């Protein structure tokens, strides 16, 4: 059964009421996480993506992350996700750096048998397939939902899933994982068991702020931080900072008459961002837009302005880490793309 999407509607007229200058327009950016789709009443393809990315910030490249776009309508079930790779490459044929890389889907519950699927995805991706992600975010409370078709319980604990993840690592692909903070112990067990697998946590490791979880509650914040700290001890883990527009995070900017200013967003997000930076260090942290999902809560210009405000305490070299270098290295993207016109950015 397909459920109604928990993502907030995008209201362009509401977003257009936001007005602020672009901060540090010279900063190169690699948007490490976005989606594309063409759904009834909800179109976000290359043209819509480039309109957002051309709004003043210097976004040099981006990474597409799977969201069941363009699956094949026939053939073996396990091979149908090949259609997503084919669709995204077709949509982006005029914008080769957007996306410059793709995180695709292969059913890791196939265990060792997922190998031929991974090989087919790699071939279809013609060098742009960088990793794999499965739908794994699960919580028993129905109020905690971030996917139209929520994952069942136990995927991250499944032996077959672990075998599938091992096949991912053996092909030098990374694994993105979207899990709530209540599941981070399961992510830790997986990452610990597979030290050759690069595990990239999406959306700050899923700190919850809905249902039984109050955003900013000290006890819940500490639960998230403690679980994240254990993961950060594993050298094969990375983390993306973003996803604050997801309904499960608990923010309600969309309820206000005007879209939020970047200064408010930076203040709101500071405890989570500072914790991620403190635990992982800048070389294992990357910023993401999570557009168009987060676009229901704020605009693209304001989002990256907020990240730039939050990165003010960092050195120039550390800012390059979080805005592009960490993502480029994690996903195997050529760093020369992010050199400044006047010379190479600091290394």
UniProtKB/TrEMBL annotation:
Gene Ontology terms, MF aspect: hydrolase activity
Pfam families noted in UniProt: Amidohydro_2
SUPFAM superfamilies: Metallo-dependent hydrolases
Chain ranges of the Amidohydrolase-related domain: 31-332
Recorded superkingdom: Bacteria
Keywords on record: Hydrolase
InterPro entries on file: Amidohydro-rel (IPR006680), Metal_Hydrolase (IPR032466), Metallo-dep_Lactonases (IPR052350)
Similarity-based family: Belongs to the metallo-dependent hydrolases superfamily.
Protein name: Predicted metal-dependent hydrolase, TIM-barrel fold
